[in-house]
Design goal:
Oligomer: heterodimer
Helix content of chain A: under 10%
Mean pLDDT of chain A: 93
Number of helices of chain B: 0
Largest sheet of chain A: 7 strands, mixed
Mean pLDDT of chain B: 93
Strand content of chain B: over 45%
Radius of gyration of chain A: 13 Å
Order of helices and strands of chain A: EEEEEEEEEEE
Largest interface: A-B, 24 and 25 residues
Distance between the termini of chain B: 41 Å
Chain lengths: ~120, ~110
């Protein structure tokens, strides 16, 4: 069964550094998402992406964040200048887009980001 | 925006007992309600979902009920097993928004 994949699985960075988290969504899916989960807390929506542009974003997704689909398979999340509070597990998710939002979102295994 | 409340935060049951987790949502336009199971350090995995045109859905030991009038939905796990131990998240998808809003999670512990 196809799965969403993410790299790296873990990333440690210094405060103020830029990080890029990578995701490969399921190949026939049209909608892509980034969520984050601070340790022990709930999953929070960051941004969704469709047709090569952001379709919606949360208040968490400020100017420090950006997303890109540089080629036909990868979907990336960039944090320009990391802060301590960016430490979290970042999940990528994708869905087919065939049922108006009422279909399963499949999650990747996550990237655990630690900002020191 | 949508707000999803989930209770209880922790639930401990004996193996073989039933477990019930409840969620309420605020946006009456929400029409899709998935439940995810997350084991420690792993990705959330969908276990069951329900759409607003039905009131109940069952898949083996797992069932979900939806009350649109009261804006709440519940997960029922029967004949619990130790491998059911995990954190369970409910979520809602407001029409037109299409990103999931998650509840705060329930840590289920099934005691053998």
């Amino acid at each position: 069964e196809p799965e969403v994949t993410q790299t790296p699985s873990h990333q440690v960075t210094q405060m103020g550094q830029e990080v890029i988290l990578r995701c490969v969504p399921i190949s026939n899916h049209l909608y892509f998402y980034w969520y984050r989960q601070i340790l022990g807390q709930k999953v929070e929506f960051l941004v969704s992406f469709y047709n090569n542009e952001i379709s919606e974003k949360s208040e968490i997704f400020d100017d420090q964040f950006s997303v890109e689909r540089p080629d036909g398979s990868n979907f990336t999340l960039k944090i320009r200048s990391t802060k301590l509070e960016d430490s979290a597990m970042y999940f990528c998710a994708s869905r087919t887009g065939t049922s108006g939002g009422q279909e399963t979102q499949y999650f990747g295994p996550g990237t655990r980001l630690l900002v020191l | 925006g949508e707000n999803v409340e989930q209770h209880p935060s922790t639930l401990s049951v004996q193996e073989g007992d039933s477990a019930v987790i409840k969620c309420t949502y605020s946006d009456s336009a929400s029409n899709y309600f998935p439940w995810y199971k997350q084991e420690l350090g792993k990705r959330p995995q969908l276990i069951i979902d329900i759409r607003s045109n039905v009131g109940e859905k069952k898949d083996q030991r797992i069932a979900v009920t939806l009350n649109k009038t009261a804006k709440h939905f519940s997960l029922h796990i029967t004949e619990t097993q130790p491998e059911d131990s995990a954190v369970y998240f409910c979520a809602a998808n407001p029409t037109g928004r299409r990103a999931l809003t998650f509840g705060s999670g329930t840590r289920l512990q099934v005691q053998p």
